[in-house]
Every structure is written in C-alpha cells, then in structure tokens.
Amino acid sequence: MKKLVFFLLVVLIAAPSFALAFDGRYIRFEHLIPEFNGKPILGISSILQDREGFMWFGTGMGLARYDGYDFTFFSPFPDREISSSFILVYPILEGNQGDIWVGTNGEGLFRFIKKKETFIQYKHDPSIPDSLSGDIVLSIQEDKNGALWIGTRLGGLCRFDRETETFSRVDLGPEVETIWDLYADREGFIWVGTHKEGLFKLNPVTEETVNYQHDPQDPDSLGDNDVWCIFEDSEGTIWVGTNRGGLNRLVPEKKGFIRYYGDRREPDSLDRSNGLG
To answer: Does domain 38-274 have CATH number 1.10.3720.10?
Structure first.
C-alpha cells in the first residue's frame, strides 16, 4: 500500500513537468474511414468545419457530415437508385447565412439548407444566359458583401446574385476557362488562380483586374501560370501554390514574388531559390 501511495505521489509531482516538457506537442491521430452501405469511402476532396462545430466532407459519394461519432451522407437525388444517387463533390463552403454550398463534377452547384436538410441545384443551361457558366465547379468563395463567386472547369468565373438567383460571367479574357482556386481576402479583393493564365486580383465592385503571369526573363515574376491554390496568412500576405513554379509569396510594394522551391536533399523543407530581397 505504501509503495502505491509513493508511486501516485511521484506521478502527481512529475505530471506538471512532464506536460511542460511536451509543451502541447504530443499529437494523437485517429484514423476515420466513412462508410456508405458498408463500403469504405477513401477519397476526401474537401473539408469544412461549420459554425456549429460539425465537420463536413466532400467525397466521391456526395456530402458527408461528421458529428464526432458517426458520418451522415446527404444526397440531392433521394429518388434515384442508391448506386447513382450520390455525386462527386469538389469544394464546399459555408455561407454567411449558414447554408453549405457544394461544387460538383458535372452536376453543377448546390445549396444545402442545413435546417431542412434539402438541396437547391443550379446548372448550366445554354438557352439561359444568366445560368451557371459550367457544371464542373472547382472553387467557391463568398466576399464581404455576401456575393458568391464560382470557378468552373470550362466556363471560367461567374458571380451569383442572391436576390435574383442569377449568374453573371466575369470576363478575365478569352483564354481563361479553368479556375482552380478562389480566395476572398480581408480587404475585399477576390484572387483567382487559373489554368495557364496566371493569377488575377479582382475588384468585386468594379470588376477591374490585375493579372500576374510568369515571365522567364523576370526572376521576380510569378513562378508558373498554372495556379492551384491561394492563401492569406495572419499578416495579410498572399501565398500562391503553382504547378511547376513552387510556392510564391507576393511582395505588393515591389509588385513581384519571392519563390520557394523544395530541396530534393531535404524533402521536408522549402528553400528560397531567388526573388526579391
């Protein structure tokens, strides 16, 4: 009994220093595999945590919600056969009104009304000029004024007007068809990552744009014209991930970029290879 008491005292005394030594850096991973009808769903294309704390996932079997215990799948086509009722989901976004916006591979854009657990579908219709510009939706963003911006695979960029429930095409140039990523920054600008046409900074009010492109003769230009992802850090710096031009950090006052490339000798690091000092 004395040995047990002594052991517990040692554990209690050592516990604070033990926790301090790890400094919160001990991380445990839990492996979660959602299932639908007993089949594991391995492909996750997007992740979102909503304002209520639920986790939402874009999957090859549609939209899934995780409540900390179970996964629930939601289908916009409940009357279809199970084998064809779900769709491949790409981006997901929670709007300022609390609904989930869902981009898909071929079925257009969906608005999922969480309170009713129902979907509203928006698709491209060639006979309707103000319909969605394309049915493969790769990116979604909402600006400070609540306007929704949608990037498509073949229909470029379009803007959704909530009041009229209509879409308008945003002209970024005749060659801009594929929008890989969108980002709404803290100042209200929309950043557009395209396929082969570089990075655009868009003023959502005037729709004026600045286009950043790669110039082989300029080491301070964008690293590559295929822009896959865009992010703004806590200091307001814009970071751009490209296909073959590494990670790029925008330096606004010099209107150029610093490029970071991976060092093959140290695959877990990025080294600055060139750029603005």
So the answer is: no
